[in-house]
Design brief:
The chain is mostly helical. It has 15 helices and no strands. 39% of the residues are buried.
C-alpha cells in the first residue's frame, strides 16, 4: 500500500515528472512521492523513491513505497528491509504492518503474516484481501469467503469454490471478466461439479491455451475424474 497526500502538491504532473528526474531537490516530500506514481516503469519509480529516502530520511513513506516497488519486482529481501526501516520510524503503522504481512505471506510464514495483518486494522480492503489469502492457505475457507466479501477477483472465487459455493464463485468470475487462465480453470472446475460438460471443455481449453502448465494440472486433477476418458479432455491436456 502506497501513501501520499496529494492535497499538498502545487505543481502539474508534467512539472513533477521533469523535476523528479532533473532537480528532485526542488520538490517537497509529497511532490516527490507523487511524482513516482506518474511513471510506468518500476525502475524509474524506485529511483525516485530512493531519492526521497535520501532527501527525507526521517519520513517512513519513502522507505515504505520503495519497498512496495521492490516487492512488485520480486526483490522480497530488499522490500522487507525497507518495510522494517519504515516500521522503525512509524511503529505499528497499519500500512507498514500490512506490507510486512505480505512479505511474511510471500515467505510462507502464515503465522507471522496473520500477526502482521491482525495489527493492520484500519489499512483498508487490502488487509482483508491479504487475510483472505492467509485463510485459504490455512484451510479456513469460510473465513476466506468473509474476508474477500464483495471482491470480484479470482482468489475470492477460489475461496468460494473451496467452500462449496459454486454459484457465487461463478458470479464473481463472470463479474471480473478477465482473460485469466486461473479464472477459466475455476470455471471448468465449477462446470465439472455441476455436470456441465460444455463448460468444462470450453473453459479448460481457454485456460490451457493461455497457460500450458494447466494441462498437466488438469490431467491429474480429480475434479475432472469423470472426464479423464473424454476425447476432448485428452486432446486439451496432452
Amino acid at each position: 500500500m502506497f501513501v501520499v497526500n496529494t492535497e499538498l502538491i502545487g505543481k502539474s504532473d508534467d512539472e513533477l515528472k521533469a523535476l523528479a528526474k532533473s532537480s528532485p531537490a526542488e520538490l517537497n516530500v509529497e511532490e516527490l512521492l507523487y511524482s513516482a506514481t506518474l511513471f510506468d516503469n518500476n525502475n524509474d519509480k524506485l529511483a525516485i523513491y530512493e531519492t526521497c529516502m535520501r532527501q527525507f530520511p526521517n519520513d517512513w513513506r519513502g522507505f515504505n513505497d520503495a519497498g512496495m516497488i521492490q516487492f512488485e519486482m520480486g526483490n522480497i529481501a530488499a522490500a522487507q528491509s525497507n518495510f522494517n526501516k519504515a516500521n522503525s520510524m512509524s511503529a505499528n503503522n497499519p500500512v507498514v504492518q500490512n506490507n510486512l504481512g505480505a512479505v511474511a505471506l510471500k515467505n510462507g510464514d502464515l503465522k507471522q503474516a496473520e500477526i502482521y495483518f491482525g495489527a493492520a486494522t484500519g489499512a483498508g480492503d487490502e488487509v482483508n484481501y491479504n487475510k483472505g489469502i492467509v485463510a485459504i492457505k490455512s484451510g479456513d475457507y469460510a473465513a476466506a469467503v468473509n474476508y474477500f466479501g464483495q471482491c470480484n477477483c479470482v482468489n475470492a472465487a477460489l475461496a468460494n469454490v473451496l467452500a462449496g459455493n459454486n454459484n457465487e464463485a461463478l458470479k464473481k468470475l463472470n463479474a471480473e471478466n478477465k482473460e485469466c487462465p486461473m479464472s477459466y480453470y475455476l470455471k471448468a472446475v465449477i462446470g465439472a461439479r455441476t455436470n456441465d460438460a460444455t463448460a468444462v471443455i470450453e473453459n479448460l481449453r481457454k485456460a490451457c491455451s493461455l497457460d500450458g502448465s494447466f494441462k498437466q494440472l488438469a490431467a491429474t486433477d480429480m475434479e475432472f475424474a469423470k472426464f479423464f476418458e473424454n476425447n476432448d479432455f485428452i486432446a486439451i491436456t496432452k
